[in-house]
Amino acid sequence: MLSLEEIVAALKEIVGPRFVSANPVDRINYQHTLAYGAFRSLPDVVVRVESGDDGRHPLCEILRFANEHRIPVVAKGGVGMGISSPLKGGILLDMLGMDKVLAVNPALQYVIAEGGASVYSIHYALREHGLMLPNYGSYGPAVIIGAMVNKGGVGYGMTRYGYIADLVIGLEVVLPDGRVVRLGALANDGTEFGPFQKWIHLPDLLGLFTLAAGSLGIISKVCLRAIEGRREWLHDYCYSFRRDQLEQVQEALLRLVKGEVVFDIHFTDRWQYHWPMEEGLYDEAKIPADGWFFLKTVLFARDSEELAYKERRMKTIYEERGGIEVAEIADKAMGAEAQRRGLHGWPDYHIMGPDGWCSTVVRHTGMFAVTSKMYPLTFLKEMYDLDEAAKRECGLWDAEHSPQHDSYVTRDLAIKEEYFVFYNPYDEQDVAKLRRWMGKVHEFCNKKGVIWTAPTLATKGPFPFERLGNLYDLIKEIKYLIDPNNILNPGALAQG
Q1: What is the pLDDT of residues 131-186, one digit of tens each?
Q2: Cα(90)–Cα(79) distance, integer angstroms
Q3: Confidence class of residue 371 from pLDDT cuts 50, 70 and 90?
Q4: Do residue 209 and residue 236 come from a single domain?
Q5: What CATH number does residue 171 fall under?
Q6: pTM
């Protein structure tokens, strides 16, 4: 077994000394996740991966070296939601140097980018051609496309178009032994036709490397389906409901998704607006005093006729169930103010940064942790009530901890539900409250059958794996075939 000094020396030979660090400060900075303080998993060494103008990169050589010496490897995904937690130490790959948007095809409406390209930069390139990803993000320049594919990333437009992974029509992946494979549309790259559709004349293997948490290969290229899109085709609304109207909220969401009326619905509660209102970012007089749930809704309409139909259907569904329109939030959280901060007038609902919605809360609270999961819309009321009860029991249901919900309604008649808690990572009592609450969430979620997205699945105990039955056994067999030395993000996809 190589010593850390020997590993660092070998990696410097591969990528150059400027791109390798075992410095404790760098290791701590790179290990951050959205649950910083709850999961403290440090890499042994950080490696920055750069690609040249000709597209060449050292990924293959790095993985061959790591595989030969059985060194764990995890690819960093920008902001990070567990996939950036090196559970077994080893090498953490900073992919931000593989950031090129390689091709945009306006005629066939696809884009090809390197695995480390930010979603933000991909949108920038598409908008130069009058295109957009139908699932557009709220992340600023931080989050990279490889991580979005690996961990089920989402964005505005999920109600109509689904996960970012649903937009993937091709991948290029580097396997643990250094081999490069091209899947889906990218398998046809290099021909006269080039990449144009997901399906080729072989079984579809794209799914092996989507939502796989980097456990089977490192994504070096992504080919995504785009659509024609302009800023003026997106129309922003917000409706509020009282706390005792959650059943009506659930009914409205089901009807809007079934009727394919909306482009996107974002489900939040009043905790998200408590501190922004305290800071005067919103005019509190223009927000219903008893409004608790806020449904930020986007319609996609190319002309006034299409907009009139969709707007009428949306308003009818919301208002028949007691919803009240709140222009103050639509304008400032989604419309003019968000557009001013965004790129070329496109809203960029920043999570962090000076104007980010989390930054306002952090100024008054602390760091945040989030659990992210999918479950049917028909269980929205029951799950929200369970989470509120757990937070109250753990002493977290107050403004100091801002226990907000920030969730995406999906086209699958489901909801990608994110439970937030803000806390002091340096206060062991506060961390203990957080861990107790997370344990309660894991217990009632696992029993009911949620689909976990973050933090990493390995933190949820054995049940999410075991309930899959022989499918889990098959996944372990595939993992062993592709990665027999278990170097790629060990523990994240399959336990042991």
Answers
A1: 999 887 655 666 789 988 988 788 888 999 998 899 999 999 999 999 999 999 99
A2: 20
A3: confident
A4: no
A5: 3.30.465.10
A6: 0.91
Tally of domains in the chain: 3
pLDDT digits (tens, 9 = 90+) for 386-426: 999 999 999 999 999 999 999 999 999 999 998 999 999 88
Q: What is the 3-state secondary structure (H, E, C) of 164-215?
A: CHHHEEEEEEECCCCCEEEEEHHHHCCCCCCCCCCCCCCCCCHHHHCCCCCC
> What is the model's pLDDT at position 336?
57
Whether residues 286 and 430 share a domain: the answer is: yes
Looking at 394-495, list the stretches that DSSP marks H as alpha helix, in order from N- to C-terminal side: 428-448, 463-466, 470-482
300: amino acid identity, one letter: F
State residue 342's pLDDT score. 53
Q: Are residues 55 and 90 in the same domain?
A: yes
Q: Domain ends where: 39, 71, 97?
A: 97
Q: What tens digit of pLDDT does each residue of 54-77 get?
A: 889 999 999 999 999 999 999 987
Which H helix or E strand runs over 382?
helix 380-393
**Two tokens, residue 473:** 């056994």
Residue 486 lies in a domain: no
Out of 97, 132, 158, a domain closes at: 97
- The residues facing 170 across adjacent strands are 184, 223
Q: By residue range, what is the domain housing residue 189?
A: 101-228
φ/ψ bin of 353: left (φ > 0), alpha (ψ from -120 to 50), beta (otherwise): left
